[in-house]
Structure formats: structure tokens, C-alpha cells
Specification:
Elements (H helix, E strand, L loop, with lengths): L3 E7 L14 H9 L4 E10 L7 E6 L2 E8 L1 H20 L10 H18 L8 E5 L6 H7 L6 E4 L7 H4 L5 H8 L4 E4 L2 H14 L3 E4 L2 E4 L2 E7 L6 H8 L2 H13 L4 E6 L8 H14 L7 E6 L8 H21 L7 E4 L5 H10 L2 E4 L8 H8 L8 E5 L12 E3 L4 H13 L2 H17 L2 H13 L11
Parallel strand pairs: 1-2, 1-5, 2-4, 5-6, 6-7, 7-10, 11-12, 11-14, 12-13, 14-15, 15-16
Antiparallel strand pairs: 3-4, 8-9, 9-10
Helix pairs in contact: 2-3, 3-4, 9-12, 10-11, 10-14
Length: about 475
């Protein structure tokens, strides 16, 4: 078995104590690395006055990690700038929020080059290098310049946009060209893969030379869809943990005689939180007889506070939540709780278990592992109902959820009413189908499918004949 080197923007391996934040990528990568020798490389999250490339090595819960500090300018231009003000909004179809700044692009290229120079001495012959997400698209190109001929794969954890959208990005062709320095490029679902292929065909004069094999820019790359999952067995243990049970009991006590509607999302404009709040408001307005039978809990940990768009959405959500409670509350009851803090994964497992409805309605999402965690946390004898945006990658797998257009308040309100009135046999039938998929398409299946395909690719030449 080849050694596996995983590279991501941030290195945040779980401690194994259940205290990780909401994000699913760290859990997925750690689960992959525990099965392979190798290491996890990336940014420490810390800054330094001057970049030195000095590595910090440690072993955390069975995972060897290597981290490097970045300069403040790197964080401003590469992370807050190009990654989160340019690529993130563009890939989520928010051209209105996309910032184009030459300094951002220069910082993005500089940090990828610095990552390559720091990582290069750690790579041994035969290693598989697996690079993750939009922060690091040019990293393989920079490693190839340093003479690395190892098999290298890239996995995108966010949607790949339609080629007409991508062409609004200055330098879009150079970005896609850099992806042809990888041997294997993976997407969550076939829709994103097809959007990438359409770009190659229409904008890069590329051609398909085999199943999933594309040639452009004088190179070839294999592409495929690999839907990510959760560690279903591990999550099942969390649901039974003492802390999860206590949290479930607390939620039951807080919602006595009421049905709990649960949303858990990082505070981000792509998650459809404003639209969700308005949809819940419409449900309350349209169903006065059901108002006192529900309590909605929205957990939304704050993220990327240095980006203006995130400050603005937080202010709008604060206003909306206040408006809903101001309009519909009574002296002994309020319909809505909105919380901006992180919870441990075992605590979230208990909250999911208590939820009669899981409300997962992003405007656009690469996959969305919260939907899968909600399913995994349910009581098989009395499960809740998942309401899921049709624009989440998970909607291609979790087809027995109630699929909705999150832009429609009426559709969200109707789905909530349907979920709350659904009888137990139908809830059980839908949940069984959902849970079977969560178990089958778990993080192990994702890891094994991707790494096996990368292993089977022959070490590439540096240049193809025209």
C-alpha cells in the first residue's frame, strides 16, 4: 500500500474526544488517514511576521500532521481574499459577492508556491499526494515545477460552476489549466463533473479520449464523481454517548409538548439561512393552529468574520430572528431560537436525535454532511423527517428526503407542514432508505473509491506529445 499524503488549507485533526466543530471535512480526512501511513500537511491557522517554511510536526489521535505558519499578508490575500472573496462566492453562483483584486490572485499563487516548497522535502518516491479544495488548485502545478512526478489527486469539496459562470473569473483558463497537472480530479456528484467537462470542451478546446479521461493544454487528466459520506459507525457510537443522551434529554425537556425543528450550519450566505428563516416565518403565518406545537432551533457558528459579506449576513439574521419572535411569541412561548456558537459533535448528535424535523436548505452546497448526520442520529423506531434542498449534492443520494427549493418560502412552509403531519409508517419507510444510503456511501467508501482510482493511475510523464 502506498503512503498517503493529504494536503488541505487547514489541518484540524479531531482529538477523538467528541469536541470537534461542525465542519465535516476534518472528520472525513482524519478517518482516511487512520487507515494509511503518511501525513496531513497544511496551514497551522497561525501567522508569523516572516514566512520561513519551518514545519511543526506532531501526532494527534493516530494522525501525523505537519503544519506551517503564514504571514498576515498571505492570510489577507490568499485566504480571506482569493479563496473566500473570489472563488467561494463564484463557485456558489454569487457573482454579486465575488471580488476581483489582482493582489488576491498574487497572494493565492504565492501561498500555493510556498506550500509546494515546504511540502516537497516530505514527499518520497511512491507516495500518493491527495490535495483538497479550492484553496489549493495550483498546488500540483507548483509541485511539478519542483520535479514531483508522484501520482497526485485533487478533490473539490464545493460545487463546480457552469462554464458560463466560471468564465466571469479573470484568469479562469489558467486556473483550469493548473488542474491538468493532477492525475485524478474528483467531484462530489456527476453534475459538477459534467460542468467541468463542459468547460474543458467549450473553453479549452479539450477532447474526451476515454471514459472520464480528458485531454487539454497538452496534458491528460482523469475525472470522476466521488460522493463523500460520514463515518456512520463512529457517529452511531456518538449518538449513544452519555453527553449525547444528556443533550437529547435537555432538548426534550425544553420542547415538551412541541416538535423540534433543527438546523445546523456554519454562518454563511450559501447555506440559505435567510431564506430558511423566512420560510419558517411563512409556516407560522399560514398555520396558526400549529404555532404552539413547534420550536425551531438554528445553530449557526460564526465564520470568516474578517469578510464583510459575513458581517452583513449576521446582522440580517439577527434582525430576522428578532422579527419572527417579536411577531409570533407569547408571554409563555417563543417559536425560534437562534444560537451563534459551536457545539461538540456528541452534543450535536443528541440535538439531531431530538429533532422531529431536520431542516437542511442551502442555496448551493457541494455535498452537506449535516443532512447525513441528522439521518444517522435518528431513532429507528420513531425517526424524524429530513427536509433537504435540491441544490445540495446530498440530494442526489438522499432522495427519500422531502426535497425543496430553498428560494420558495411557500415550498419550505408546505414541506414543514408535511413533515410535522407525516405518520410514523411513512417516516420509518423514508428513514430506512436514507439510512441505508448513509451506511453504504460512508466516508470509507468515498476514501477507498478515490484512493484506489488514484493508485491505479500510472506515474505520469511531465509532458504529453501534442
Amino acid at each position: 500500500m502506498s503512503r498517503l499524503i493529504v494536503v488541505s488549507n487547514r489541518v484540524n485533526p479531531p482529538s477523538g474526544k467528541g469536541d470537534e466543530s461542525v465542519g465535516g471535512l476534518a472528520m472525513a480526512l482524519a478517518a482516511a488517514l487512520r487507515e494509511y501511513s503518511g501525513l496531513w500537511f497544511g496551514w497551522s491557522g497561525k501567522t508569523t511576521p516572516e514566512f520561513t517554511g519551518q514545519l511543526a510536526m506532531q501526532r494527534i489521535d493516530g494522525v501525523t500532521v505537519a503544519t506551517v505558519d503564514l504571514e498576515e499578508a498571505d492570510v489577507d490575500e490568499y485566504y480571506n481574499g482569493y479563496a473566500n472573496k473570489t472563488l467561494w462566492p463564484l463557485f456558489h453562483y454569487r457573482q454579486d459577492l465575488t471580488a476581483y483584486d489582482r493582489a488576491y490572485g498574487e497572494g493565492y499563487e504565492r501561498v500555493n508556491r510556498r506550500f509546494a516548497e515546504t511540502l516537497r522535502p516530505l514527499i518520497e518516491a511512491g507516495d500518493l499526494v491527495w490535495i483538497h479544495d479550492y484553496h489549493l488548485i495550483p498546488l500540483a502545478r507548483e509541485l511539478r515545477k519542483l520535479g514531483v512526478k508522484n501520482r497526485m489527486g485533487f478533490f473539490l469539496h464545493v460545487p463546480w460552476p457552469a462554464h458560463q459562470v466560471l468564465t466571469t473569473l479573470p484568469g479562469h483558463k489558467q486556473l483550469v489549466q493548473a488542474m491538468f497537472d493532477y492525475d485524478l480530479v474528483g467531484f462530489h456528484i456527476a453534475e459538477y463533473q459534467q460542468a467541468f467537462e463542459e468547460y474543458v470542451l467549450n473553453e479549452a478546446a479539450g477532447e474526451q479520449i476515454g471514459p472520464g479521461l480528458w485531454k487539454a493544454f497538452g496534458r491528460t487528466v482523469r475525472v470522476g464523481a466521488y460522493p463523500i459520506g460520514i463515518d456512520a459507525a463512529d457517529f452511531a457510537k456518538l449518538v449513544r454517548s452519555a453527553r449525547a443522551v444528556r443533550m437529547r434529554d435537555l432538548m426534550a425537556a425544553c420542547t415538551v409538548f412541541r416538535n423540534l425543528i433543527v438546523g445546523v450550519d456554519r454562518l454563511d450566505y450559501s447555506k440559505g439561512l435567510e431564506e430558511r428563516f423566512i420560510g419558517f416565518e411563512r409556516f407560522l403565518a399560514d398555520n396558526p393552529d400549529l404555532r404552539r406545537e413547534v420550536l425551531m432551533l438554528q445553530i449557526a457558528p460564526v465564520s470568516r468574520e474578517g469578510v464583510e459579506a459575513y458581517q452583513e449576513i449576521r446582522a440580517r439574521l439577527d434582525s430576522l430572528s428578532g422579527r419572527i419572535n417579536g411577531e409570533f411569541s407569547d408571554i409563555d412561548w417563543a417559536p425560534f431560537r437562534y444560537v451563534n456558537k459551536n457545539y461538540r459533535r456528541d452534543e450535536l448528535a443528541g440535538i439531531y436525535r431530538a429533532g422531529r424535523v431536520g431542516l437542511v436548505t442551502p442555496l448551493r452546497d457541494g455535498m452537506n454532511l449535516v443532512a447525513k448526520e441528522y439521518v444517522a442520529a435518528q431513532d429507528p423506531d420513531d425517526p424524524g423527517v429530513l427536509i433537504l434542498s435540491r441544490f445540495a449534492g446530498a440530494a442526489r443520494q438522499l432522495t427519500e428526503a422531502l426535497l425543496v427549493n430553498p428560494n420558495s418560502p411557500e415550498e419550505l412552509a408546505e414541506a414543514l407542514k408535511q413533515a410535522l403531519s407525516m405518520d410514523k409508517p411513512e417516516r420509518i419507510r423514508r428513514w430506512q432508505a436514507l439510512y441505508e444510503n448513509v451506511q453504504r456511501e460512508d466516508v470509507t467508501a468515498w476514501r477507498d473509491a478515490y484512493v484506489a482510482d488514484l493508485e491505479h493511475i500510472q506515474a505520469r510523464p511531465t509532458k504529453l506529445a501534442s
